[in-house]
Amino acid sequence: MRAQRPESGRVDAGDDVIRRVLVVDDSRAQRRILTASLTRWGFDVREAESGDDALGICADYAPDLVLSDWMMPGMTGLEFCRAFRDMPRETYGYFILLTSKSDKDEVALGLDGGADDFLTKPVNAAELRARIAAGARILQMERELTDKNRLITSTLDELQSLYDSLDSDLIEAKKLQQSLVSERYRDFGTAEVSLLLQSAGHVGGDLVGMFPISDSRIGLYGIDVSGHGISSALMTARLAGYLSSSVPEQNLALQKTRVGGFAPRPPAEAIAMLNRVIMSEMETEHYFTIALADVDLQSGQVIIAQAGHPYPALQRATGAVEFIGQGGLPVGLIDAAEFQQFEVTMAPGDRLLIHSDGVTECAARDGALLDEDGLSRILRDLRQTRGRAFLESLIWRLSDFAGDADFQDDISAVLLEFRPDPMPG
């Protein structure tokens, strides 16, 4: 630290971190000697003749540097140092004990009591200035660290505020995404449809739905957009419009008839149209898998096109489970991709589960996946559980398997159940 001689009798400590100094000594002569040197070097100096007086001064003055004699009547310098350390301060105060003690145990005791340095009495002026300069360097580093910590705290507060705002927006976004599946259950008489949509985060990339085709036919679909989060959720919102249940004119799975009504478009053709739309109109790196089904509620005939989506599970009335489908390419990867469809006939008591890979790829704590075998076991175990109760039980079983209710992937499913034949009366 460069000492500056005050001009015109005024103290000018500039930007030095040590400006205010407190000298504590029961000897008035010792205080005067130290104060004279410190004042000449440009410091603002206060004096105290005892530890008690010094504490009173510190309450209002908050010195940057304390020079205190160790041996004083009443409160010793070491006791004062401990009390000084207990006082609340915004910045660190540097403490130098003045002592004739040179024993290492005594020095260790002083350091343990909170002292930063020692000066042997009588005090040499050059050594005093050197010790003050060393203290100034330490305080400078402490002030810089404090400023950086304040900046970090301020930045963290701003980030927390932004996070809270984003979290609030995501909560609203989750409500909006869940509203895309406005109807979770419908009884069609001969069959029932139940829907499940549970995102791993606030919002996700899964979507399920159903739409009417005619009095005896319905469409069902399960979609899984690549990735997670906001961008995937935005894509599901766009796709919901292309398979709308309320605006059939916009539904790519339907086509107008000559008499003004709507008829089903073959599921494979509808998925091909979705692929063209994604490749030509959407500037995105996302792709998605889909299983799209055309269901005849009277005959039990189900036509399904599968584009990269997990194989649907078909459970017969006997309880036997089989996984059906042909796999296929996801949508949005290849221009002019072709998609295939297949048919299955469901009988009374049969049920079909169209599910996302969040079900079969649900992982246990040891990393083992549920897989199709695990899902088959759940379907057989819950054979007598139907509708929404089955889907709720499915979530519980997955939670037990994973050991955690917070899944790593979105969970979605469409459950189509044909009513069993009535028991002969």
Description:
- The protein has two domains: 129 residues, Rossmann fold; 239 residues, Phosphatase 2c, domain 1, CATH 3.60.40.
- The protein contains ten helices and 18 strands.
- Helix content is 37%, strand content 24%.
- By secondary structure, it is α+β, with helices and mostly antiparallel strands.
- The N terminus is likely disordered.
- It is rod-shaped, with a radius of gyration of 39 Å.
SSE topology sketch:
Elements: E1 20-24, H1 28-40, E2 44-48, H2 51-61, E3 65-69, H3 77-86, E4 94-99, H4 104-112, E5 117-120, H5 125-179, E6 185-187, E7 191-198, E8 206-214, E9 217-225, H6 230-242, E10 254-256, E11 262-264, H7 267-281, E12 288-296, E13 301-307, E14 313-315, E15 321-323, E16 341-345, E17 351-355, H8 357-360, H9 371-381, H10 387-402, E18 411-418
Parallel strand pairs: 1-2, 1-3, 3-4, 4-5
Antiparallel strand pairs: 6-7, 7-18, 8-9, 9-12, 10-11, 12-13, 13-16, 14-15, 14-17, 17-18
Helix pairs in contact: 2-3
Modified residues (4-aspartylphosphate): 69
Keywords: Hydrolase, Phosphoprotein
Protein name: Transcriptional regulatory protein WalR
